[in-house]
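Researcher: Here's the sequence for the chain we discussed earlier.
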Amino acid sequence: MSQIVEIVHRIEFSCAHRLHSPELDEAENRRLYGPCFNDHGHNYEMEVGVRGAVSGSTGMVMNLSALSEIVRREFWTHVDHKHLNHDVPFLEGVIPTAENIAVAAWARLQGEIEKSPGCRLHRIRIFESRQNSVEYRGPSPD
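Model: Thanks. This is the structure I predict for it:
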């Protein structure tokens, strides 16, 4: 019987953004997003959870150093100390909410992580502050 374990890599990144929807007028954007309508920054934390069977030959689901490298190469280098509205091509045209950042991170990481035999990206959790976080578990099966 295989043992399924979730491993988690946690990374921090700092970036700026502005929340506004081109579908809304300025007054509605200000009402909806409040202070986040203005340029501002966050020190985010992101957890990347990977599930898989523990290998009998290595004792690991996936090498955590390999996971760390994938997260850095495919996501962190593109967002850390950047303005998400202007500097990140994979977020172009996207309102850079924590929810949308999590979805974008999934899209960037899933293929690389799942090249490791038996590994499946299980969740992305973004902490926008100590009080607020979002979690994404992949596209809906429907």
